[in-house]
Amino acid sequence: MPHRPSSTVEDYLMEIYDKSREGRVVIAARLAEKMAVAPPTVWNTVRRMQRDDLVDISGAKEITLTPAGQAAAESIKRRHLLTERLLVDILGLDWADAHEEAHLIEHTITPRVEERIMAVLGNPTRCPHGNPFPGIDPATMPKTRPLATARAGEEWEIDGINESAEEDHDLMAFYQKNGLVPGARLKVREVASYNSTITVDLDGRAVTLGMPAAENLRIVVEQPVAASSA
To answer: Quick check: pTM over 0.90?
Structure first.
């Protein structure tokens, strides 16, 4: 059985994976901010990861995953998203709390338990917040854009919440409280550029969001071909 990284290294792997998937450059300073540790501590960990062939470090100090690091990162990411589904779908935990709680559990899940959870949940492809599991073919996912780009009078379906927003518990609680969850349909009532807000009608209620909150909500622009032709 391959050596499994420590929980600390798995945290680094998932953070590098998430930032890379968002198209962001990963450097030690950003990891230090996220992990709430000093830059020398980050470099010590990253150098060990480099030694173990999990990351490459460019001359510009950009940190990227090697093929082995990518595989390890996808493994921990899959366990995290799967744990969120377990907590919400089976244990009935609040949708807004799932991300934080999953982080406490994900490192303890073995491949055998992971396989069993997948079977019990019916092989899900997304977490409760709408984000796809690693390895899911992008062609099977809807095309999306941020709610912040919508205009007054338009109607949309929410696809999901950006993964970076899941770190903000208060924001996630706001989304949940107001029904701004995957699959919800809304109509844009007003886009107020003068105070950077957008107001939508959802389930007979008016909900006003700041543009940063609207930027982290994805709306469905086009369904995948397979889904639309089914």
So the answer is: no
